[in-house]
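Following the same procedure, backbone shapes were mapped to integers, as reproduced here:
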Amino acid sequence: MRLKRVIIFLGALLITTYQSKGQIETSTEGIVKVPIGGNSWQIGNVSEGDDLISKTGIDRWNDANKWFKTFIRVGRAGTLSVWLNAKVNKPSVLQVTVAGKTKIVECKVQPKAMSYLGSWNIRDTGYVAISIKGQSIDLSNIDYLGISGTVVDEHIHFVKKDEGNFFYWGRRGASTHLNYQTPEEKDIMYYYNEVMVPEGNDVVGSYFMANGFSGGYFGIQVNSQSERRVLFSVWSPFQTDDPKAIPPDHQIKLLKKGDGVHTGEFGNEGAGGQSYFKFNWKAGNTYKFLLKGEPVAGNYTTYTAWFFAPEVGQWKLIASFSRPQTSSWLKGFHSFLENFSPIQGIYERKVYFGNQWVVDREENWFEINHAKFSADNTARVGYRLDYSGGSERGQFFLRNFGFFNRYTPIGTLLNRPMKNRQPNISLNELP
């Protein structure tokens, strides 16, 4: 057993960087920095207060039960060498896994510097996970991984800078959208959609938004392990992220709400009126969403949302809001999938949207089967490319996060087969 430990120790010394007599044994020329704060996740059952990763990286890591993954996307096969920039407070042993191969690295006590973790052969393009576990560890001021090798070229992707708060947005992951093509010549009063989240895709932090429109959004969320919501919000026409800054003549007014529905204000991503209903919706079930929008006297528009759960079997009023400085029928029809929790941005989700319809002011129904795929700025700048959308099972779908390799180009036109299955709804009898 002692001989085995000596062999492991000597092997680790060969792949460990340390300063000896003023010289660094492994060359650090040409190393590209991968910031921990925008590209790494703590693995396991992590809560917001338990996450060791901040925008500056990891302040201190001395718990062997916590470990981390960092993701990069490479555009070619070849070699990948990895370093860790950190202060080593006491002798620490790291277990580093890349492309299915694990190396044991022993780090000697040193001030903050780059420790060489090893080199690996990458056999294919796409996402590469760099997993780092620890044994008897005590490291601090961990701010980036260094990478080099033949795979590191202009086609490599990761969150490079925090400019524009991209460390936060990058860890959340890119949001995706379906922009539905509706009859342009019609005044649309109602907008209907159906949503099904496959089992296992109802990850905490997910918002499966069914009925998006130019004035707000309406869908279902996973807020925590014990709470789920049906959420309906309407933006104020006054541009601000602070609801208290909205002048009285631009404030969203609540007209009515359903039993058990909470109402209030929201901010941070625009501001306005918000309503939500706590409801334990289930993955695998199909839920129905209906939105009404119509202009009324005095330059106002009224927006009303109803939700149908198969477990209940009847339409439920969520809320009705009045939006000032607005006189418009429904416009800007879209759905989206987003993750609002940075610690959950590592886990894949998928959602299906099916049987979309709109109803004009004369109550004529029109089925919608064309959409354009889009994604947010995190995708557009190339920081995250794990997103896609398409059509299958006769429905549209969106798929995000999880660092899968195949992505859908932004702007792709999508279509699904016509169902010719008009919803059976008595519009004038809704609650």
Remarks:
- Residues 1-26 have pLDDT under 50 and may be disordered.
- The longest strand covers residues 110-122.
- Helices lie at 2-14, 36-39, 166-172, 377-380.
